[in-house]
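Appendix B. Extra example for self-study. Work through it before the problem class; the solution is given directly after the inputs so you can check yourself.
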Amino acid sequence: MSSGAQTKSGLYLFYLDFVKPVLRSGRGLFGLIMIAIMILMATVGPSLIPLDTKLKPSMRWCLPSLEHPLGCDYMGRDLLSMVVHGSREVFLIPFIATIIGIIGGMSVGLFAGYVGGVARRALTAVTDVWLTIPSFPVIFILAYVLPKSPLTIAVLLALFSWPGLARALAAEVSSLKTRDFVEACINLGLSKLYILFREIGPHLLPFVTYNFATLFVANMSSLIGIVLLGVAPLNPTNWGYLLNQMIFTYKGLLIPNGSVIVFLMISILVVIKLGVVFFAQALEEVFNPRLRTYE
Amino acid sequence: MDLKALFPFGKILGKRLVYALITIMIASTVTFIAIRSMPGDVLYTLAASLAEELRIPFEEARKIVYSIYYGIEIEKPIYVQYFEYVLGLLRGNLGYSTYFKRPVTYVVARALGWTVFTLSIGVSLSFVIGVLAGMVAGFKRGSKSDFIMSSTFTVISAIPGYAIALFLYIILSARLGLLPARGAYSPDVEPGFNLRFIADVLYHAALPILTYVVTTFSGWALLIRSNVAKILEEDFLKYAEARGISRRRIITTYVGRNSILPLIPLLALRIGGMIGGSTLIETIFAYPGMGYYLSIALSIRDYGLLQGIFFMMTVATIIGVIIVDMVTPFIDPRVRREVAVA
Amino acid sequence: MSDEVRTGKNFKPKLELRNLRMEYLVREGSIKAVSGVTLFVDEGKITAIVGESGSGKTSLVETFLKILPRNARIRGGEALLRLSSGEEVDLIKADERTMRRLRGKVIGYIPQGAQNSLNPVLTVEQHFIETLRNHGLWKPESSMSEIHSMLSLVRLDPDTVLKKYPFELSGGMKQRVVIALTMILKPELVILDEPTSALDVFSQRVLLNILNDVSMKYRNTMILITHDIPVVAELADRLAVLYAGTVVEVGNTYEIFKEPLHPYTSMLISAIPSVADIYVKRIPKPVPGEPPSLLNPPPGCKFHPRCPYAVEKCRTSEPPLYEPKKERFVKCWLYSGGEKL
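Solution. Structure tokens for the complete assembly:
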């Protein structure tokens, strides 16, 4: 390496290799903005925008305006304030669920992939069974009957987050295991744990990151889905609960303005989900140059 | 021809049956937990009214309620309760619905058909459309039209099924009034094998089916697209061209079959998700399938109905997976040989 | 390996490549994989094309067969094919319909490796039937016995192989199936791409015997692409040396081995271990230097950075193909006194 390149700090190289390509791809930038909005919404949002609890019958289902950027709900409350206050639960529970799921999936996957043989076959059998269970009703029934707490729901969501990742990781590890550099480590007498975490681990990081993002949005949709179906929420501003009230209790879909508000509400969810998916894809392209498009 | 060649699934079927048994155990554990942790007031109301009617002590009424409604013999040790419960489910004792005042099998018998009908049409249509769209994008890989198509697929596949159901509801039903979003057929139509009824049923099923198609076709299309792009680089494709094999045969037998085959096992894995996902979609469209009754059971706290419907959903998934497993050897020679050797 | 078949200037070659050019478009620019190839392939003979890996051997064949990847662009030249019917076709100008008629039926291509050249979902028998059907040659009463005898010729047992899927065959068997599948159409021109690479020494021997049998039986014109010089010496009548996408020397195999003209050819030949080398356990010295980048090929003669005889002229302008001796062509300024082609 020339002396010119060495003077560049590691942080700058990180920027060049990872940050700049994400920012330069339109999808990556869009995703980054969405994630920034999500974080702001869930952290400082509730203290910036007070929760509107006043019932204003004259403002029921009012359309978006300067005063109410997202319009009003079935009781004439400002929808933006509801959405912002509900975001904490809607983001935090899936986030915890995804962390639990990823840790579980990684431990099982790495173990089965590294040990191989019987362990891998057992994992395949277990995940085969696990993936056949209609997961949504299970989450929804258990969330309904078990004592309610954010952690319970997060664990339920995590219960169905690990198999896909575990399976893919096991396959990946067992193929990495036969690569030259790992065999060299084994010949050097390095410990298995060292090899697993220091040598194999870094190769799996992009894959795990990508899975984190996609699992997070999937868990978010599931959470909103079960609350939408009538599993009582922990917080009355949960987006699923807002939708449930709008659609089933107040029959918003049959009211012209109501359907506009419902439409807006789901669009917010879809745009956020898309943002995270796009960000994950942009990251994946950065990590894996083979995915970049030529011509 | 020997028996093995005629019926080469012995081993695959055996494996699946073991899996099915485990799946059923897990599913019944879920419902068992649900019933055992049922809120006291639901049980109290049932037991109290029974006690009054039969003039028996409350405790005895409570036992009878457990046994009749949910198939659990409450006085026995918990593991005996559990095993008898699972055996009961397997024997078809799905419990008793407090709302319909009938065995759950009665409700299931009416609901199962609608779910299977809409889902199977939805799955097949989405698979066919997804494969065709993915093939087009794959053949044009790297071009502008491929970029537009795959971006659209990515966007659509990121939208949750219930959001698509709501979008379609708002646009096609609430706004334009094109399609009905309530029930499986109009009340004024005579059910039976006549043209008017069939047309009406299809008309009512249009929204759920459309939702299944829109939700899932893009996922298939993305998978097929990447498979096609991979296969187009394969040596056997180049050699087929060099042998002068016709374009049509290359598209069908070379690219088509080889890109669709890896998707068949995925189809089996997704059946559970789709049956589970039908809960939300059928509820939104008030379509009287199993998912619809599951959410009704929840909202009126009918635990018998809840356990029975969920159990049937699991069984339907298992049967779907077994059907896919049975069909696979006919489509994929590699699986056929693997099975025949075993 | 004599040359008596050739009868002077009025002799017409089976395939005539003139100044053929093709490049691959990549993000960084264009890879000039075939840059001005001129080559005559004589009827009824085996012409070998040799060169290091990356010299554009396979690309050259894919260019005139027009089975290139999507990012490839043909940039000019002609490829004149003379059919036994007397028809002459310029493959470069021919439309896709004509090409589909010629591929397989007139020009047979046996691809490299053959590990992955068969459709995984078809049996060997289905491969044969579809191939014959596609060219309208399928005759229910006689075709099967033809397939059987073709498989026997490549030393495969037809009864066991025909019902098998590619994944049930070994690499060597697959390659022989591919040879039989190509030969069943009795092509007038057969192209063999690296037939011996990826085979162990024993299978190589078997394969060479098979190829000998096949070429004796059908007397097709053959193009043999390889980097394996001993194979060339054994099979080929004529030899073309490819370097960086261009032909640097063409001639009779025996004569080239006896007296190579181009500096690159002589380096290639001296890199083959001789009996003396083997006896004293000496490793012959390989061609020094690296093959040039085809993305930014050097100006002038592409070999000049590695050439011990390079002069100023070699660095600036590309030499034409000279014919310093009868039927010997060489692309090098050293022979600028000779007759130009």
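Self-check: DSSP finds twelve helices and 13 strands in chain C. If your reasoning did not lead you there, revisit section 3.
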